Amino acid sequence: MNAHAASKRDPHIDAQGWLTDATRLPSPNFEARPDGAVPTLIVVHNISLPPDDFTTDAIAEFFLNTLDHDAHPYFDQLRGMRVSAHFVIRRDGEIRQFVSCDERAWHAGVSSFCGRERCNDFSIGIELEGSDRLPFEDAQYAALTRLARIIVKRYPIDAVAGHSDIAPGRKTDPGPHFDWQRLRHDSALPPSFFPFLSNI
């Protein structure tokens, strides 16, 4: 079996921080993590461009700095923005990776987790294609669960949070339709990994 086939059979994050079976779309929007910083937090987001539209490739174009800002009125407000996440999970469960997990993606913005500022420094950002107004797909939960397990095997992750948890009042995602209990149950991660959940 060649190396490519083996990576598909046993997906993992390689020595350069890339998931071996993800669709790889390297974004220019990243930088090195601060010296000594390693990922200890997974941050879950949602995104759709335009909002509630899952038929375009605009998320990838936005993260790759190739978005046509004249293609939709909503895109005008995104001019000049440079954003990325490590992963995007599409509605059908496809996992796309834009930034190596070893690098600092630009997904969290002004943020704080348990008193520690600048969550981009020590987190891995996962965007679910979706919105605050619509449920997520079963395929997305399955992909997120698998991805979280793979990340935890590779890095010293000890918590999972939503963007709204680390930027309260500024962000609302992944939103009210995201089923945190489902992720907790399916991933089999310890309750301590979910500090913002109760009554699990």
UniProtKB/TrEMBL annotation:
Keywords: Cell wall biogenesis/degradation, Cytoplasm, Hydrolase, Metal-binding, Zinc. Residues 27-175 form the N-acetylmuramoyl-L-alanine amidase domain. Its EC number is 3.5.1.28. It catalyses: Hydrolyzes the link between N-acetylmuramoyl residues and L-amino acid residues in certain cell-wall glycopeptides. One of its GO terms (biological process) is cell wall organization. It comes from the Bacteria. It is an enzyme of class 3 (hydrolase). GO terms for cellular component: cytoplasm. The keyword Zinc applies. GO terms for molecular function: metal ion binding; N-acetylmuramoyl-L-alanine amidase activity. Signal peptide: none annotated. The keyword Metal-binding applies. It is found in: Cytoplasm. InterPro entries: Amidase/PGRP_sf (IPR036505), Amidase_domain (IPR002502), NAMLAA_amidase_2 (IPR051206). Pfam families: Amidase_2. Its cofactor is Zn(2+). Belongs to the N-acetylmuramoyl-L-alanine amidase 2 family. NCBIfam families: PRK11789.1. PANTHER family: 1,6-ANHYDRO-N-ACETYLMURAMYL-L-ALANINE AMIDASE AMPD (PTHR30417:SF4), N-ACETYLMURAMOYL-L-ALANINE AMIDASE AMID (PTHR30417). This is 1,6-anhydro-N-acetylmuramyl-L-alanine amidase AmpD. It comes from Caballeronia cordobensis (Burkholderia cordobensis). The lineage of its organism: Bacteria, Pseudomonadati, Pseudomonadota, Betaproteobacteria, Burkholderiales.
